[in-house]
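Example S7 (structure tokens).
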């Protein structure tokens, strides 16, 4: 950040053990990955009720859900804003759109939290594991 002149605006925090506390203080979480599996950072943000903007790569697409509306350079999905990978303008436009739309932030926050709680809960995981083992036993 020093070579870009951002040192007074950007702080790289390094590895932290208080991630959930940090997320709780955020208005929006942005993920600008070029490649992803299923990003835990987005799951944590959504579980905390923080709306997300992310590049449409890998498992991000499944987390954000179906496209509700296509804008110029990004998509408003059911649970977040999906921007184009490798496109800084798309990321900026998606962030600005969400930052300026209070009702959308609230809607995406609620939808994201509900989705993560139903799809990534401990109960769901244990039920899936039980069903997997039962299936293996009957083979």
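Recovered sequence:
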């Amino acid at each position: 950040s020093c070579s870009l002149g951002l040192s007074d605006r950007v702080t790289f925090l390094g590895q932290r053990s208080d991630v959930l506390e940090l997320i709780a203080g955020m208005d929006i979480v942005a993920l600008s990955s070029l490649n992803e599996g299923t990003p835990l950072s987005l799951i944590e943000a959504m579980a905390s009720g923080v709306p997300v903007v992310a590049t449409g790569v890998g498992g991000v697409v499944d987390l954000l859900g179906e496209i509700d509306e296509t804008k110029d350079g990004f998509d408003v999905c059911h649970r977040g804003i999906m921007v184009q990978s490798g496109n800084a303008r798309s990321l900026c436009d998606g962030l600005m759109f969400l930052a300026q739309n209070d009702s959308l932030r609230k809607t995406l926050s609620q939808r994201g939290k509900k989705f993560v709680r139903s799809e990534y809960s401990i109960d769901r995981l244990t039920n899936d594991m039980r069903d997997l083992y039962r299936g293996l036993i009957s083979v």
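Notes on this example. The longest strand covers residues 52-55.
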